[in-house]
Design brief:
By secondary structure, the protein is α/β, with parallel strands linked by helices. The protein has two domains: 71-249, 3-Layer(aba) Sandwich (Rossmann fold); 255-419, NAD(P)-binding Rossmann-like Domain (Rossmann fold), CATH 3.40.50.720. 24% of the residues lie in helices and 26% in strands. It contains nine helices and 19 strands. The strands form four sheets. Strands 6-5-4-7-8-11-10 form a seven-stranded mixed beta sheet. The chain is elongated and about 100 Å long. The model is unreliable at 372-376 and 381-420 (pLDDT under 50).
């Protein structure tokens, strides 16, 4: 290793302890004629001061890509996995779907998956394991989750399973990126890792093993999963030693939907402002905010706005960036009256509306820009109110709502509201 954390990549490893004469591996146990050559080594246990991951500052064992599974022959383990798979498949509606176990050994658990009406696949690095799995009738092919450019056989998959394998990986981000790129857009995953809290609390140092390059807690496992494009939809402890995570690929912002937001805002603003301009009216903006600058710079609104009002003296006498609309004091209005003022100062709409009413009178039409959950644009009469989020009062049939979602399933529903 290079002294860098295998999770966050920072050179921030602090040595917790060094243990001499530690067994160099937990597998490939020496026979009698190998004892003379067998020697222990110094195990260096470190913790990253940035992300807190506990890890070994030792080279990984030579067989870290292979799955060696003595528990695969245990009836209790097989029964436990069966219940775990049943729950995962039912929860994520995976019947009839393609599921790949990444690091499947000799296919011990693929036989369990086959009982649940799914299409079970496996990839395994060790050639002997691949042969054994294929001889047992399992759909297993050679492979390993090397990095983001790795292509799994038979990809893309609807779901993946990774059972106590990530802790062996010296490049866990690359491992999960390989899985991410070989699964479908809305793929699910089932991940288990040993819970290292016992080791961290000091009561189980004998649980250290050279095969495990990393020792995850719930905190660091969540960090790893989140950093690599997955969200956790359920998690917990299978037992005192094992953490489990049911995950789903995160949805990225839909570029087309994002552009739809821009086009929708631009179109509705232009429609509203053009109506005023066609009647010989004039329009101003209140609030030289970054939202104001963005909308003026990226829409035709800049061609229809006479000036921008702002109460901050240090902004007055300047111009909006890119669009070059003059920024003036509130008193400028008296000699340059407008029929409509668009408020672009979040959280200050009520205060500014009162100022407009008190200073300029109640005949000024006000268009308020809202960005809070369920917000949008709405003509606001100073003597009336509107409740956003889809419930409109006072205006009733005089409003039109155009839904605009940045991406499917987003928590905040944004919309544009315009008086007809």
């Amino acid at each position: 290793m290079e002294g860098k954390c295998i999770l966050c990549g920072k050179k921030s490893l602090n040595i917790i302890t060094e243990i001499e004469d530690f067994p160099v591996a937990a597998q490939h146990i020496p026979s009698a004629d190998e004892l003379e050559a067998d020697r222990g080594e110094t195990l260096r246990l470190c913790q990253c001061s940035r992300c807190s991951l506990l890890q070994l500052d030792n080279a990984p064992v030579s067989y870290y890509k292979d799955v060696i599974r003595s528990g695969g022959f245990s009836k209790s383990m097989m029964s436990s996995r069966k219940e775990q798979f049943r729950y995962f498949i039912d929860k994520c509606n995976l019947k009839g779907k393609k599921i790949v176990e990444v690091g499947c050994g000799a296919g011990e658990f693929l036989k369990v998956l086959d009982e649940f009406c799914v299409m079970a696949y496996g990839i395994e690095h060790d050639g002997k394991n691949v042969s054994l799995a294929q001889e047992a009738g399992c759909n297993v092919k050679p492979g390993f989750a090397e990095d983001e450019n790795t292509v799994f056989p038979d990809a893309l998959y609807d779901a993946f399973i990774s059972l106590n394998f990530i802790e062996h990986q010296p490049k866990p981000n690359d491992y999960l990126q390989a899985i991410y790129n070989n699964t479908k857009e809305e793929a699910y995953g089932y991940i288990t890792v040993p819970d290292s809290m016992i080791t961290i609390n000091g009561s189980g140092y004998y649980d250290l093993v050279r095969d495990h390059i990393a020792y995850y807690t719930d905190e660091t496992a969540r960090l790893l999963i989140g950093m690599n494009g997955f969200e956790i939809i359920e998690s917990g402890n299978l037992d005192v030693y094992t953490l489990f995570y049911i995950v789903k690929k995160k949805r990225c912002i839909d570029r087309n939907a994002f552009l739809h937001v821009h086009d929708g805002l631009s179109g509705m603003l232009n429609t509203a402002v053009n109506g005023i301009k066609e009647r010989g009216g004039h329009v101003a903006i209140w609030g030289a905010s970054h939202q104001c600058f963005a909308l003026l710079g990226t829409t035709d609104l800049k061609y229809h706005v006479d000036y921008v009002i702002d109460s901050a003296p240090f902004k007055q006498g300047k111009y909006t960036p890119a669009s070059h609309v003059p920024i003036v004091s509130p008193d400028y209005f008296y000699d340059h009256r407008v029929e409509c003022i668009i408020i672009m100062a979040f959280f200050y709409e009520d205060e500014i509306t009162r100022m407009i009413r008190d200073r300029y009178g109640s005949d000024i039409k006000v268009l308020c820009l809202h960005e809070s959950g369920g917000g949008g644009f709405a003509w606001r009469n100073m003597m009336r109110s509107v409740t956003y989020g889809g419930k409109y009062h006072e205006y009733k049939n005089h409003c039109m709502v155009i839904p605009l979602k940045i991406y499917p399933g987003c928590r905040y529903h944004k919309g544009v509201v315009c008086v007809l």
